[in-house]
Amino acid sequence: MSAKVLIVDDAAFMRMMIKEILSKNGYDVVGEAENGLEAVSKYKELTPDLVTLDITMPEMDGISALKEIKAINPAAKVIMCSAMGQQSMVIDAIQAGAKDFIVKPFQADRVLEAVSKTVSS
Prior knowledge:
Elements: E1 4-8, H1 12-24, E2 28-33, H2 36-46, E3 50-54, H3 62-72, E4 78-82, H4 87-95, E5 100-103, H5 108-119
Parallel strand pairs: 1-2, 1-3, 3-4, 4-5
């Protein structure tokens, strides 16, 4: 059975890129969200195996959403997505419980490496 993934990014283009990479490689993208508030409610609704979460978003940022998702399910598996130059935020995210992070622009092999490593952990 393939892992169910929730993709969260405020840019539709970025969501589409990740979705395409994952779908082509057998992952089941069960939902998408464009901000942290939506991410938390979709997480509750869809109970995905994995969440890819952008750090910088309107409404609620990725680190706040990560903390809320971890409060709902301490075992949640979350990979943060960040732009270059967000190292301090990436460190905050890892300390808040993110399993890994991928940097934009996405490299398909790096996305797949992070996802397969996180899903099997």
